[in-house]
């Protein structure tokens, strides 16, 4: 049956109904009564689902374990000690928990940098959870396993390799027809010039962090259409360096946002949006509109992970990945700035993914977040001991 979201307002402030048919947005505006499940959106604002462009979802059971970790600390404790102790059932549970945390916070799409060696268990979890996910496998066997996937859960390749073999790994991903993602620093000796010379930059590739990005790097990436995703909360907390959001924007680029790791950051995109706004205003010396940052968590984030035509917008013909936000009914006109500066997961009232209601009236429909956290606690204790 169709779904009719009745009586809400778009983030622009315009009153509008939204009709969803076969998982797709069929109409936005004044919609006549018809046989449909009606969602009363009175007092709510309808916006696109948020898009998390970079999250290590397998670390969901480790939430808060690295409040004072530097990057070398993280490599030792999380990648060196915890990761090898993960079993397939741990990866499955972690993906379910991560999906539940994301959906509860209005994140309808997640790019999972899946460097845990249990890709099949992760895919099974996402099939259960009902979130839109890109599973980026971190080795060639995993990449083969996710290649050719279509639908709500698709595949990519996460490239984590020394500079001398990065080009070979990227070519392998491209030969499989996979979108590719890699952590990068940029700057002198950062290797972006070599990737450019090898013809390996472009919209099929996402670079994450790029904290040492120079103006030359920024123009190179913007001109080639290479996706850039920043994770400003983790980058600041762990000492990666200044966020390159403003530098990339000055070159004509549009960076997306990610949460990265929940060992020292919340599992939502509200704080990354606010951190980006604060830093951008300080670095640009302007009062850049707060609402402009919402694109970094929606349309720009989707574009940076190769889903620019799929996610991040409320538009006819797009999959119905939608969030109904509460808390702003007292405001007239555009509320995007208010959303960025004041809202949080508690204001995520209702969430749809691909036309299916996954959170209703403030509660997840089929995932029990509290139960998943309780079950995952044992995983966190065991792998970090």
Low-confidence stretches: none
Number of strands: 17
Structural class: alpha/beta
Relative helix content: 25-40%
Mean residue pLDDT: 97
Distance between the termini: 49 Å
H/E element sequence: EEEEEEHHEHEHEHEHEHEHHEHHEHEEEH
Cα-atom Rg, whole angstroms?
Answer: 20 Å
Strand content: 15-25%
Overall geometry: globular
In DSSP terms (H or I, runs of 4 or more residues), the helix count works out at 13
Largest sheet: 9 strands, mixed
Protein name: Amidohydrolase family protein
Keywords: Hydrolase
Pfam family, one: Amidohydro_1
Domain Amidohydrolase-related: 48-358
Question: What are the main properties of this structure?
Answer:
385 residues, alpha/beta, nine-stranded mixed beta sheet, 13 helices, 17 strands, 35% helix, globular
Report on this model:
With 385 residues, the protein is α/β, with parallel strands linked by helices. 35% of the residues lie in helices and 23% in strands. It has 13 helices and 17 strands. Strands 1, 2, 3, 4, 5, 14, 15, 16 and 17 form a 9-stranded mixed beta sheet that branches. The chain has an 8-stranded parallel beta sheet with strand order 6-7-8-9-10-11-12-13. Helix 2 packs parallel to helix 3 and helix 2 crosses helix 13. It is globular and about 60 Å long. The relative contact order is 0.18.
